[in-house]
Amino acid sequence: MKPLSAKEKSNTHVMSATDVDNAVGVPKRNWYVAVVRRNTEKACREKLEQMGYECYVATQNELRQWKNGQRKNIERVVISTIVFIKTTEQQRLQLVKEPFINRFMTNRLGKVNNFGRHPIATIPDKEMNTLKFMLYNSEQPVSFIDSPLKKGERIRVVRGSLKGLEGNVCETSDATYVMADLNILGCAVVRVSIEDIERANAKD
Q1: Is the pTM of this model over 0.85?
Q2: Is the separation of the CB atoms in 28 and 20 below 8 Å?
Q3: Which are the contacts of 10, defined by CB distance < 8 A and separation ≥ 6?
Q4: Is 137 helix (H, G, I), strand (E, B) or coil?
C-alpha cells in the first residue's frame, strides 16, 4: 500500500477532529426533554452524569433568608420536573426505561406518525445556550411561564451582566421582560431595565 503523503496525513487528522455528532455514520445527539418527579430534578441530574450523559437542569443560585435570620445560598430549580439530556435517539430509548424518568416530552405541534403519535421533542442548541446564559448571568430572578408572552420587538441587552442576550419582549411601564423562547416548553423570563436594551437589528 502506498504511504500517505504529508498533505494526506494532515487531511486525515482534520477529519478525525470534526464534531462526531455530524460525522457520517455517527448518530446525532439532540437535547431531549425528560420529565421526572417534582423535587427530584437535581438527584436525576447526578444519576445521569454518573451514567456518563450530558444533562442540564435549569437552576439559578439565590440567597435565601430563613425566619430565624439565617442566610444560605441555594440552587433553585427554575423549570420544575424537567431535565434536559443530550443524547442519541437510540440511547433515549434505553433511558426511558430508567425508573427515575417518567417520560420524554413530545412535540404537540409536530406531524403525527402512522400510529397517530407526535414526535419526541428536541431543543435546538441555540435555545439551550440562551437559557444557560440567562440563568448563569442574570442578577435578577428568572421565572418560567408555560405559554409565551405576547411577542414584541426583538431586542438585545447592551449593558449589565446579561449583555449580549437577545430575545422577544413584553414591555411594562418601568421595565422590559426578556424571553428565552424554548418553543414547545414556553419561555424563561427575566426583567431588565429599558435603558439597558436596544433593537436587535440596531448597528453595534
Answers
A1: no
A2: no
A3: none
A4: helix
- Tell me the average pLDDT across 171-190: 63
Cell numbers describing residue 75: 440552587
Question: Cell 439551550 maps to which residue?
Answer: 128
The grid coordinates of residue 74 equal 441555594
Say how far apart CA 194 and CA 42 lie, in whole Å: 34
Give the closest residue to 142 by CA, choosing from 110, 172, 108, 165.
165
The C-alpha atoms of residue 180 and residue 129 are separated, in whole angstroms, by 10
Of 187, 196, 126, 186, nearest to 155 by C-alpha is 196
**Beta strands 122-123; 71-77: pairing state:** unpaired
Measured from the Cβ of residue 26, the count of other Cβ atoms closer than 10 Å reads 12
| 149-174 exposure pattern, b = at least 16 Cβ within 10 A, e = fewer | beeeeebbbeebebeebebbbbeeee
Judge whether 74 and 61 are in contact, CB under 8 Å.
yes
C-alpha grid cell, residue 180: 428565552
Which residue carries 504511504 as its cell?
Answer: 3
Give the other-Cβ count within 10 Å of 180's Cβ.
25
* Each residue's pLDDT tens digit, 3-32: 444 434 333 333 233 344 555 567 899 999
Average pLDDT over residues 109-122: 78
